[in-house]
Amino acid sequence: MSESMEYLYPSKWIASASTGVRLACELRIRIISGTIKKGTVLSENKLAAEFEVSRSPIREALKILATENIIRLERMGAVVVGLSEQDIKEIYDVRLVIETFVYERIVKMDTTELVKELSKIREMMEVAIKYNDADEFSYQDVLFHETIIRSIDHSYILLIWNNAKPVMESLILLSMRMRLEEKSDDFARVLKNHDLYIEAINSKNRDIMIQALHQNFQDVQGKVDDLWMSQQMLTKEREQ
Questions:
Q1: Start and end of every HTH gntR-type domain (predicted)?
Q2: What is the pTM of this model?
């Protein structure tokens, strides 16, 4: 890949990834940011020339993006589909489902080490803000939530997370960059919300967790109640 080209996606996040994956990350964030418009036809030859690579990693990248439904593969090339408001809403619905499920499992665990790990990540987030580094803040933000999800050691929940993560990560990165430029004071609220997550996990207090979820997701009260009820019913069925 060309060293002189200006990239939107942080190269340090994917330094050890294959060229195809790195290309997918860059094309994904360009599509989600609107730099590459909906309806654009992506040509393998043109992309190979632009990024100064062979067509093979371009094909790999386009296949990855096609599985995420942000492009559509056709004979003429790949057509950019992009993300609709409904797509974004559904991505955050997935996050809500995952985090609610995970917390229901966490309340039955020893969370001492998890709380320590999350507290360290929270400190790194605060350091990133001091240095006006939205990219590092975004990286630590995603790591914070992924650490919570990994803590329950549930392979299929992790699979769902990993499938949603690439698009979600780009949305978070773009959001944090915009926040730094336009309303940097809002980072204090974001940090406080992560404090609520840590407090909820440490105390295993459901009300605090709902408060934390409210800060991340709009109109979730009914959804959270329904999801928790479903988890409790499933647990009882397994125990019978």
A1: 17-83
A2: 0.86
